[in-house]
Design goal:
The protein is built from five helices and 51 strands. By secondary structure, the chain is mostly beta strands. Among the domains are: about 5-55; about 420-530, Heat Shock Protein 90; about 535-625, Alpha-Beta Complex (Actin, Chain A, domain 4). The strands form 13 sheets. Strands 41, 42, 43, 44, 45, 46, 47 and 48 form an eight-stranded mixed β-sheet that branches. The chain has a four-stranded antiparallel β-sheet with strand order 7-8-9-10, with no helix packed on it. A four-stranded antiparallel β-sheet has the order 14-15-16-17, with no helix packed on it. A hairpin with a 5-residue loop joins strand 28 and strand 29. The longest helix is centred in the C-terminal third of the chain and has 15 residues, at about 455-470. It is globular, with a radius of gyration of 29 Å. Pfam families: DUF3298 (PF11738), WG_beta_rep (PF14903).
């Protein structure tokens, strides 16, 4: 191969799509360990310099990584040595995709950067989907739109909904006069190639998609909207291996029809998923006790219908789940590994199993997370990590997200980067993250303050922080009726005042949703005192009435708080939950207290300038940070 041509090809692969090379300087064209390539290129009307270094100019893979800071958890990107190449300045950061672009967020807005850390898309969107077929879906105040890889909006208007691209088409929807969504399809240019006329629309696959024309009628259409066939059934599912799940009546049994509409398997299942590689997962439950099985195209059982759930792991493997509590299937499953022919390779021993990739899958039990091979055995040549989560092999490194923390290591188990557990506040004070996991379903990360002069005061403060965080006796071997996860962030620090945000999420198995919780301890790092809301104000100031009126006026006059139930708000309590920063007091309410669950924690920002006349500026609380 021509060495120079190889290097030029490599350079082009490392430049943004649509860029134009202006000048290139390659040291050591003998190619024996090229040290450096300097490229000047034009992109989007601006000129840039790209410097590539390393033995044989090996391409650099970047990995998203979070650290805890005074500003909360921040994300950046490390190289395969564990060094930050793009500084951790983002609120959130997803992996770089094959187009060498990454979706990141700042100040509650999303944008896109390239591998040089430059903005390709400004931080202006409420959300951005992953790229699919060179397109991403963005949401702003106007609605859903589509952008290309340069960040250019290619749709000529906003929609109520746009799905990801599949087979050159993306489902879109707008609401009609009755408020119901009507669906159609966009092409890769963002144009409406099939107008909005369906009650439902599914993704295209191999040039075909199922749409709902009206109640009791579905159709299979091609990429231009031409009808291949129609089906007069209450429900028709997605096409798979030439067959479609269907129901003759809503809440009735499921069977399968072929593309022509001929019934291939009569309705006899309580749930039927699309076929994939001549197998389909079905359920024959008659009540709340699941009975999942695996069938072939004749309807014969490959795996008997007697399991709590079955998950397709790819590569001809399934995770077959047996209920932890048979009488309460919603508690979850313990899994065995089986193959496409119904052979079981393991007993029911795994708590979680992810999809297979290149012959291995991430799995976990009560104590560890590890890889298993296609026989369901632990892959002893790959690392094992204590805790519950997932492992993923990524270009020579393994990423673990275990017990909600990120770690990177080599295939031989050498750790090259892990999330920090110490947050420095200044030269004297630090916050240490401690972990409490007495049970597989109970996990708390709680803060401990370090550096206080009086160690007895420090211990008392830390004991209180443990209690506030949910550290309490939990039976190691008990099967709990719930899961609980607790964590914390530094909300504010100045002078002697440390404000921590302690969060929790309690989820009872079988519930519609969990219940979040928040607390903001305000700790004086000199005295160890935990300040309450009343400590901010002068005695006799009637701060409850003053703050209640300010919040009541906001609810009444500010459209931002239109979600609040006006009749439910009765003012604040003397010990109302709150937190502070340098310029504001924040008063918040629990979910359901004055607004729907979806509203989260309704929060009201009150600038000190509006209430300075009642603040005790000579008090310990105020002077702790002023």
């Amino acid at each position: 191969m021509n060495k120079k041509r190889f290097l030029l090809g490599y350079v082009r692969d490392n430049l943004p799509r649509g860029s134009r090379v202006l000048d290139i300087d390659i040291e050591d064209l003998d190619f024996d360990g090229v040290d450096e390539i300097s490229v000047r290129y034009e992109y989007g009307g601006d000129n840039y310099i790209l410097l590539l270094k390393g033995d044989n100019v090996a391409p650099q893979r970047l990995f998203s990584a979070p650290i805890k800071t005074l500003k909360g958890t921040m994300w950046g990107y490390i190289n395969n040595k564990g060094e930050f190449v793009i500084k951790p300045v983002y609120d959130n950061a997803f992996d770089f995709q094959s187009n060498e672009l990454a979706i990141v967020s700042k100040n509650n807005y999303w944008g896109i950067i390239n591998k040089q850390g430059r903005e390709v898309v400004p931080f202006k969107y409420d959300s951005i989907s992953e790229f699919s077929e060179g397109r991403a879906v963005v949401i702003d105040k106007e609605g859903f739109k589509v952008i290309d890889e340069r960040g250019t909006v290619i749709t000529n208007k906003a929609y109520n909904y746009i799905g990801s691209y599949s087979d050159g088409r993306a489902v879109f929807a707008n609401a009609n006069e009755g408020g119901n969504y009507i669906y159609g399809y966009l092409d890769l240019e963002g144009k409406e190639v099939i107008g909005a006329k369906y009650e439902e629309a599914r993704d295209f696959k191999e040039g075909k998609a199922i749409v709902k024309i009206k109640e009791g009628q579905y159709a299979l259409v091609d990429r231009n909207g031409n009808v291949i066939n129609t089906y007069n059934h209450a429900f028709v599912g997605n096409l798979g291996d030439g067959l479609l799940p269907f129901q003759n009546e809503i809440a009735g049994k499921y069977g399968y029809i072929d593309i022509s509409g001929k019934v291939v398997l009569e309705p006899r299942f309580s749930l039927a998923l699309p076929f994939y590689r001549d197998r389909a997962i079905v359920n024959v439950s008659e009540d709340y006790i699941n009975k999942y099985g695996l069938i072939d195209k004749r309807g014969d059982y490959i795996i008997k219908p007697e399991y709590n759930d079955i998950n397709d792991l790819g590569e001809d493997r399934y995770a077959v789940g047996k209920a932890i509590r048979p009488e309460e299937p919603f508690v979850g499953s313990i899994y065995a590994i089986a193959c496409v022919y119904g052979k079981f390779f393991t007993n029911f021993i795994y708590n979680t199993v992810a999809s297979y990739k290149n012959g291995v899958a991430s799995a976990s039990n009560n104590s560890y997370t590890f890889f298993i091979d296609k026989s369901g055995n632990i892959a002893r040549n790959l690392p094992m990590v204590k805790g519950s989560g997932t492992l993923e092999i990524m270009d020579g490194l393994i990423r673990g997200i275990v017990d909600y923390r990120t770690i990177y290591f080599t295939k031989d188990g050498k750790v090259i980067w892990r999330q920090n557990i110490i947050i420095p506040l200044n030269k004297q004070y630090k916050v240490l993250e401690e972990k409490y996991k007495p049970n597989k379903d109970y996990l708390v990360y709680y803060p401990q303050v370090m550096g206080m002069d009086n160690k007895d005061i420090e211990k008392n403060a830390n004991d209180k922080l443990k209690e506030l965080s949910g550290v309490k006796p939990i039976d190691e071997n008990a099967q709990l009726d719930y899961t609980y996860f607790g964590d914390f962030n530094v909300e504010f620090f100045k002078k002697n005042l440390l404000v921590l945000e302690i969060v929790g999420y309690l989820f009872y198995f079988g519930a519609a949703h969990g219940m979040p919780s928040k607390a903001y301890p305000h700790i004086d790092l000199v005295t160890g005192r935990f300040y309450e809301l009343k400590d901010l104000f002068k005695e006799g100031s009637n701060y409850v009435e003053v703050l209640s009126k300010i919040i009541g006026d906001e609810i009444k006059n500010n459209p931002e708080y239109s979600y609040v139930w006006p009749d439910q708000y009765k003012g604040i309590k003397p010990n109302q939950p709150f937190y502070t920063d340098e310029e504001n007091l924040y008063i918040y309410f629990e979910p359901y207290e004055i607004a729907p669950y979806a509203a989260g924690f309704p929060t009201f920002k009150i600038p000190y300038s509006k209430i300075m006349y009642i603040i005790n500026t000579e008090g310990e609380f105020w002077r702790a940070y002023n």
